[in-house]
Amino acid sequence: MSRADHMDVAAYALGVLDPQDAERFEEHLATCWACAAELETMVPVVGLLSGIDGEAMAALEQTHTDPALLDRTLMAVRRDRRRTRMRQILAAAAAVVVFGGLSGAGIAGVFGGDDGKRIPQAEPTLTAPITAPPSPGPTASGPGIGGNEQEGDQHDATDPGTGVKTTMWLASKEYGTQIDLQLTRLPGPRTCRLVVVRKNATSEVVSTWSVPGGGYGTNTNQLPLELSASTSAPLKDIEKIQVQSVDVNGVASPLVTVADL
């Protein structure tokens, strides 16, 4: 994907792209978490400048906690693009000034910052397995624990090298295994994934997410990361479940492992 695709975020958020460029950018946005995160920081400001109504603002606010971040963000942006051309031009001019002052604080505002009022949540996505075919069973993803009593057996682990700590709840299902987990002491920024390793030596990536600069369960951001995923592998066939960090070259390294299954 060209560098220009990554630089169209502001233009798309303000609705100044022509239909062809907007469609091309939306295709790019569906596979680029970095642009999606940047777009999320711009939507609330653009909505404020363009006089977005109460119903639309409520929808934009939901994007901070709703796991279906991309779909809801696109819906809010498309509503803004129906505004008159004059309003879009005025919003673009004002945004140049506003973004100049917010560049250092925009991301902190989205992810909660120091006040802890907004709860950041990861948006897990199903990806292709490392060495095994895609799981035929359903995969539930998104925030899943939030203080409720958990289903399944609890497993706690802390990696002595990375210091990352996790609590996982594993429950056997007809389709496979349900996995709920909580992560703390997880520094950022980084990209992470959840990997299920079967006893037959095959592995499957069941969730991926990005970690903001403040991390989760750290001195900067004390809130833990909470998410759910599932696999078609029966619990009795799972050897271990591992949280991995993936660098820019796609090389993965373990952060914490639950192996007492």
TrEMBL record:
The chain crosses the membrane at residues 89-111. This is Putative zinc-finger. Residues 10-35 form the Putative zinc-finger domain. Keywords: Membrane, Metal-binding, Transcription, Transcription regulation, Transmembrane, Transmembrane helix, Zinc, Zinc-finger. It comes from Micromonospora chersina. It comes from the Bacteria. Residues 126-162 are annotated as: Disordered. The keyword Protein biosynthesis does not apply. GO terms for molecular function: zinc ion binding.
